[in-house]
Amino acid sequence: MKEDYDIEAAGLSIAARREDATPLPLVHDISFAVPHGRISALIGESGSGKSLTASVLLGLTDTEQFDVSFSRLRILDRELTSVDDAGFAHLRGTSIGYVTQDPGRSLDPTMTVGDQIAELFVLHQGMGWNAARHEAIRALDQVRIASAAARASDYPHSFSGGMKQRIVIAGAIALRPRILIADEPTSALDVTVQAEILALIDELRRMMKMSVLLITHDLGIVYQLADQVLVMNKGEIVERGDAEQICRSPMQDYTRRLIAAVPDIGDAPGRRGAHG
Ligand SMILES: Nc1ncnc2c1ncn2[C@@H]1O[C@H](COP(=O)(O)OP(=O)(O)OP(=O)(O)O)[C@@H](O)[C@H]1O
Ligand SMILES: [Mg+2]
Questions:
Q1: 89 and 28 within one domain
Q2: Ligand 1, closest atom to CA 44?
Q3: Which residues pair with 249 in a beta bridge?
Q4: What is the extent of the structural domain holding 131?
Q5: Residues 28 and 122 grouped into a single domain
Q6: Protein residues whose CB sits closer than 6 Å to any atom of ligand 1
Q7: 26 and 56, same domain (yes or no)
Q8: Which key words tag this protein in UniProt (predicted)?
């Protein structure tokens, strides 16, 4: 059966605009597809262009600063013609959830966590505040915030880093997006909490049948969770394929070096069982 992709990008290039009018190329002519319902990992050293690539998919690229071109960009059932296509804003609000590294900065310190999530339902679904607050509690419950109904009226500062990231994830999945883009969602967290957050993302993916694009430096995570791996180096995708195959027998020296930096892939207990 033909693979079902939620994102298809072809010939995507990103360059920074410079004052002397010669653009500085940062991402060069990359093509990739994100299969439905799976975890695709985008890996690569710092500065390789991972976050820039994600910003295009999210419609968050600052077009005054960057010049973006592509021969094709399809996200769900929408073929985008340019990066400032109005369609992006709609997709970002409803069909694509986004989680970043720093949960502290994603949350508004002046608003209760429940209201921050409720606001999404008010803004995007025209819900009244009462119904929206109910939905917000449901979302907090879904990410395993204990006593969600009570905790919804607390402010972000009263939660730990891991809890804050759960709340950010609750906001990202609240409107039941079909795609979740997570840009190093655990790198600011304690190691023990990292595993819990990743397990949560994987569980939500399965429950909600979401596609996940996971940007990470951590090859251990890739080995455990990802289905597809895309390896970026200096703005290009230099290797791609099945996670297990890439972790066990990488083709490129660059990928080999990335893997060598993770001590325990070779004797890891194994990958999560089913791919479903
Ligand atoms: N406004 C800008 N002008 C010029 N270069 C930029 C600009 N913004 C980003 N870059 C460069 O683009 C490259 C890719 O950046 P990007 O943020 O996508 O990297 P990354 O792979 O996400 O790295 P990290 O793992 O550190 O998050 C980097 O070399 C960065 O220095
Ligand atoms: Mg980045």
A1: yes
A2: 21
A3: none
A4: 104-176
A5: no
A6: 16, 24, 26, 44, 46-52, 65
A7: yes
A8: ATP-binding, Nucleotide-binding
Ligand nearest to the backbone CA of 234: 1
Closest residue to atom 13 of ligand 1, CA basis: 47
CA-closest residue to ligand 1 atom 25: 46
Q: Does residue 199 sit in the same domain as residue 272?
A: yes
Q: Whose CA is nearest to atom 28 of ligand 1?
A: 47
60 in the same domain as 44? yes
Mutate which of 14, 52, 214, 238 for ligand 1 pocket (most atoms within 8 A of beta carbon): 52
Residue with the smallest CA separation from ligand 1 atom 14 is: 49
| Domain count along the chain | 2
d(CA 12, CA 28): 7
Q: How confident is the prediction along the chain (276 residues), in pLDDT tens digits per residue?
A: 557 999 999 999 999 999 888 999 999 999 999 999 999 999 999 999 999 999 999 988 999 999 999 999 999 999 998 887 777 777 877 899 999 988 888 999 999 999 999 999 999 999 999 999 999 999 999 999 999 999 999 999 999 999 999 999 999 999 999 999 999 999 889 988 999 999 999 999 999 999 999 999 888 888 889 999 999 999 999 999 999 899 888 999 999 988 887 766 655 555 664 445
Q: Tell me what pLDDT residue 263 has.
A: 66
Q: Nearest ligand to the C-alpha of residue 49?
A: 1
Within the chain, residue ranges assigned H as helices are 50-57, 86-94, 103-106, 113-125, 129-142, 148-151, 161-173, 191-208, 219-225, 243-248, 253-260
Q: Which residue lies with its CA nearest to atom 5 of ligand 1?
A: 16
CATH code at 33? 3.40.50.300
Rounded to the nearest angstrom, the gap between the alpha carbon of residue 227 and the centroid of all alpha carbons in its chain is 15
Torsion of CA 169, 262, 7, 227, to 10 degrees: -100
Which one of 113, 143, 176 terminates a domain? 176
Residues 185 and 257 placed together within one structural domain of the fold:
yes
Asked whether 42 and 239 are in contact (CB, 8 A), the reply is: no
User: Are residues 132 and 84 both part of a single domain?
Assistant: no
Taking a 5 Å cut-off on Cβ, the residues next to ion ligand 2 are: 51
C-beta of residue 267 within 8 angstroms of C-beta of residue 85: no
